[in-house]
From TrEMBL:
Protein name per the record: Dienelactone hydrolase domain-containing protein
Domain of life of the organism encoding this protein: Eukaryota
Domain Dienelactone hydrolase: 32-240
Species this chain originates from: Actinomortierella ambigua
GO terms of molecular function: hydrolase activity
Gene3D superfamilies the UniProt entry points to: alpha/beta hydrolase
Length: 251
C-alpha cells in the first residue's frame, strides 16, 4: 500500500477556525470531539489525519455536522500529532504511525464506544470515515463482522487500494486529491462494487487539490481550497445520507 510523497513532506498550515463542538470523555476514559445538532438521528465517527487537532480539521467536521449529523472524532494521538519538523523522513513517519497500530490501540473498540455515546443522544445510523491514514483505519472498521456502520470512506486516503478493502462489508466513498494513485482508488472501487452492497461505492477526484487539504494541510482562507472543501463535505453528506436511508429502511 502506498503513502504519497506529499503526506511525508507537506507541513500543516497556520489556518484559523474557532471550533463549535466540545472535547468529551467517554465512559472508557478515551476522548472524542463531539459536534453537530443534538436532535440529528444520523451519526459519523471519524479519524483525523496525522496532525490531529488542527483548525481546518475542526472546520471540516463542524461543517459536515451542519449537514444533519452528530459527529464524533476520535482523539487517537493523545501525545499530539506528528511533529511537522520531522517531515521528510518516510521511514520515521511510518514508524510513528505504527505506534498507533489498529489492533494494539484497539481502534475498533474506540469506534464502538463512540457509537454507544452517540446512541445515548438518539443517533440511529452510523458511518465511519477518516482523512489520510484515517481512511485506512475506517477500512479496517468496515471489515469487522457485525460492525454497527452502514458506510465508510474519506478524503485524501493513504494506504488504500484493492487489497486494503477486500474484507470490507459496507460501501465506501473516496475523495482523493491529485497526490493519490488513480489506479489504487479505481482498484478499491472495483473490489467494493463486486460485492453488490446496498449502494454503490464511489469516488470523486480533486485533481486541483493537494493531499491533506481537508485537514491539517488545508487553509480555507484560500477561496479555492474552501470551495473544494465544501464540495467534499456535500459529497460525503449526500453519500452517508443515502447509506443511512438504506439502513433506516431495514430498521
Amino acid at each position: 500500500m502506498s503513502l504519497s510523497n506529499a503526506c511525508c513532506n507537506t507541513p500543516p498550515t497556520d489556518a484559523q477556525w474557532k471550533e463549535r463542538g466540545v472535547l468529551k470523555t467517554l465512559d472508557n476514559g478515551r476522548q472524542v470531539y463531539r459536534t453537530g445538532p443534538k436532535d440529528a438521528k444520523r451519526g459519523i465517527v471519524a479519524f483525523y489525519d496525522i496532525f490531529a487537532w488542527h483548525p481546518t480539521t475542526y472546520q471540516f467536521y463542524d461543517r459536515l455536522a451542519e449537514k444533519g449529523f452528530q459527529v464524533s472524532v476520535l482523539h487517537v494521538f493523545t501525545a499530539g500529532g506528528y511533529p511537522p519538523e520531522k517531515l521528510g523522513n518516510r521511514d520515521e513517519l511510518m514508524a510513528w504511525i505504527g505506534n498507533y497500530d489498529y489492533t494494539k490501540a484497539d481502534l475498533y473498540g474506540f469506534a464502538k464506544a463512540a457509537v454507544e455515546d452517540l446512541r445515548k443522544d438518539g443517533v440511529k445510523t452510523f458511518a465511519v470515515m477518516g482523512q489520510c491514514w484515517g481512511v485506512l483505519m475506517s477500512s479496517k472498521v468496515a471489515s469487522e463482522a457485525n460492525s454497527p456502520f452502514c458506510a465508510w470512506g474519506g478524503a485524501h486516503p493513504s494506504f488504500v487500494n484493492g487489497e486494503a478493502v477486500k474484507d470490507a462489508k459496507i460501501p465506501a466513498i473516496f475523495l482523493p486529491s491529485k497526490d493519490e494513485s488513480e489506479k489504487d482508488m479505481a482498484d478499491a472501487i472495483d473490489v467494493l462494487n463486486s460485492k453488490h452492497m446496498a449502494i454503490k461505492s464511489v469516488q470523486h477526484r480533486f485533481n486541483n487539490m493537494h493531499h491533506g487539504w481537508t485537514g491539517g494541510r488545508g487553509d480555507w482562507s484560500d477561496p479555492e481550497q474552501k470551495k473544494e472543501g465544501e464540495l467534499a463535505i456535500d459529497l460525503l453528506a449526500d453519500y452517508f445520507g443515502k447509506a443511512a436511508a438504506a439502513e433506516e429502511a431495514k430498521l
